[in-house]
Amino acid sequence: MQEAMKALAPYMGLGLQLALGMAFFAIGGFLLDRWLGTQPWLLLVGIGLGLVAVFAKLWQVGVRSRGHLEPPRSSGDAPS
Hints:
Layout: H1 2-36, H2 41-69
């Protein structure tokens, strides 16, 4: 059980980062809407920014993991 939790820890951390990033922007937009009386526009902007943050994080994780999956090229190989 302990080993399974250690193996899942990076994925749980990523899920938490994605959820908190989305929630941060959405709640920020909601609170600004209430303060400025602009419902629902800043909430929608916050949701949009949250989605951008989530996709940016997923892109970053994908680029990092791709480097671990590709076999190293020898110096004579031409890039494709």
